[in-house]
Amino acid sequence: MQNKAPIILYLLAFGAAISSGGLLGGCTPVVSQHGNLVNNYQVEEVKVGESTRSDVLRILGSPTTQSTFNPDIWYYIGQEMEKHGILDHEVTEERILVVAFNDNGIVETIAPYTGERQDIPYSRSKTPTHGNELTFMQQLLGNLGRFNSPDTSATDY
């Protein structure tokens, strides 16, 4: 009869290798893209003083947003983010491109946004609701006596 100890050791080593591979694979970041992350080659196709609104739409796509007070200014906003496990996401690349048109609809300027930005933190709190917070027993016993008696019909109102 052979010694079964080496077989058990091989099985334990194989199980440890599989489980450690699964744990390491779980640490792979999830990469996601939000908005319209415009590439440099696309920006180079837009010619200042020549390209029209329809040219910009064809080359860059729809703008993420337009200026609130001037519809001749378009913004292309894009972000690439990574999320590691249960941690919050991290912005790895961000680009904000501003395209301004003159009154004739021709591109006047196209440049990256260089203004100040504010990072607004997420609020994970819940919106308070008004009303009673009853326990299970209060809810169960609170309905006692609220039903119609057998001699009263629904048409007596």
Summary, kept brief:
By secondary structure, the chain is α+β, with helices and mostly antiparallel strands. The chain has helices at residues 5-25, 40-45, 53-60, 136-142; strands at residues 30-35, 65-66, 73-83, 90-101, 107-112.
- Provide the CATH architecture of one domain: 2-Layer Sandwich
> Helical content, roughly?
25-40%
Number of extended strands? 5
Q: What would you call the structural class? A: alpha+beta
How many DSSP helices?
4
Shape: flat
Distance between the termini: 90 Å
| CATH class assignment of one domain | Alpha Beta
What is the average per-residue confidence, as pLDDT, rounded to a whole number? 82
Strand content: 15-25%
- Model regions low in confidence, pLDDT < 50 over at least 5 residues: none
What does this structure look like?
The chain has a domain at 28-115: Beta-lactamase Inhibitory Protein, Chain:B, domain 1, CATH 3.30.1450. It starts with a helix and ends in a 15-residue tail after the last helix. Strands 1, 2, 3, 4 and 5 form a five-stranded antiparallel β-sheet that branches. It is an alpha+beta fold and 157 residues long. 7% of the residues are buried. The protein contains four helices and five strands. The chain is 27% helix and 24% strand.
Question: Can you lay out the helices and strands and say which pair or pack?
Answer:
Blueprint: H1 5-25, E1 30-35, H2 40-45, H3 53-60, E2 65-66, E3 73-83, E4 90-101, E5 107-112, H4 136-142
